[in-house]
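Tokens in:
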């Protein structure tokens, strides 16, 4: 087959805990990640030339080598030069539905789709762990995005352990179109303010990781106790992002004032999510919050947790 279309879901973090610094300059994390069914559509086609070409209607998406989807295709060309020679270059078309620079892993899930798609396009027969290893070379969230669903991510974020599926919770995503938060800025600010709390010894790191593994949120996920899941949301990066972005804090407060299961910032933000039991309630709360906030730059999406990452269409 000469072309593939893939669905690339966004993610939210139900838990994001910063444990300490790593020798590679990143942070040691323990996160609980969750895919949602708001996603981009990625189309891959062998173009019979040498080039990798990117196409996207959204002007916020870079179409050059800085795009993670481009980097993913380039990585595969470097890793599999014979296949690259046989099949030639690749056209990658991104239908962007996930808000850009939003803390929803939009770029990472596009890169994950390119890895999965090229594996199919070139019949490479790579396994999920092999694809995850390539993903880790591109970004910390890419390995999770490949299989998606519900998972614990540790290390830099690239070590993934699946958790029982959650799929009956509705998710409102809310983002100001004129607001973006730099992920390196958020992590660096956290380091500046909280590095006195960092744990660096391997025993301390594994204790903190184990605490999440055996903790209440994982138990609530196993029992599908949605009220408890909503009450146990946790994100260390809120400590640095919310004081600098009061609009994001106000948005969380606006959701928490409604009858939601819980509300929090996703990743390094600025997207806020709120969890609801059903779609009718989620739609109603999304429009009520839009009215309360009354800011034309605020966009809301109602979607659902989903149990998969990249899938072919
Ligand atoms: O891996 P990725 O390129 O997505 O990370 C973006 C930035 O987020 C990094 O440059 C780093 O500043 C920060 N980060 C971190 N520790 C992690 C993951 C990300 O400090 N585990």
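Residues out:
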């Amino acid at each position: 087959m000469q072309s593939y279309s893939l669905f690339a879901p966004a993610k939210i973090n139900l838990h994001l805990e910063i444990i300490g610094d790593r020798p590679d300059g990143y942070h040691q994390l323990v996160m609980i990640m969750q895919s949602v069914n708001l996603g981009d559509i990625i189309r891959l086609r062998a173009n019979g030339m040498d080039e990798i070409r990117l196409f996207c209607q959204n002007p916020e998406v870079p179409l050059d080598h800085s795009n993670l989807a481009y980097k993913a295709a380039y990585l595969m060309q470097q890793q599999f030069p014979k296949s690259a020679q046989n099949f030639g270059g690749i056209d990658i078309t991104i239908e962007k539905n996930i808000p850009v620079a939003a803390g929803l892993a939009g770029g990472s899930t596009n890169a994950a789709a390119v890895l999965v798609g090229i594996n199919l396009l070139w019949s490479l027969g790579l396994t999920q762990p092999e694809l995850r290893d390539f993903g880790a070379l591109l970004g910390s969230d890419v390995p999770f995005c490949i299989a998606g669903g519900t998972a614990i991510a540790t290390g830099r974020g690239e070590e993934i352990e699946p958790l029982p599926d959650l799929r009956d919770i509705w998710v409102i995503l809310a983002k100001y179109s004129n607001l973006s938060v730099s992920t390196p800025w958020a992590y660096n600010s956290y380091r500046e303010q909280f590095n006195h709390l960092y744990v660096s010894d391997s025993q301390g790191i594994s204790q903190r990781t184990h605490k999440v593994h055996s903790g209440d949120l994982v138990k609530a996920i196993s029992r599908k106790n949605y009220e408890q899941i909503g009450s146990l949301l946790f994100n260390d990066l809120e400590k640095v992002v919310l004081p600098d972005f009061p609009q994001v804090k106000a948005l969380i407060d606006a959701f928490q004032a409604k009858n939601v299961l819980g509300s929090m910032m996703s990743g390094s933000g600025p997207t806020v999510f709120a969890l609801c039991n059903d779609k009718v309630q989620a739609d109603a709360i999304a429009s009520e919050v839009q009215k309360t906030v009354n800011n034309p730059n605020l966009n809301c999406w109602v979607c659902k947790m989903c149990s998969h990452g990249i899938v072919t269409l």
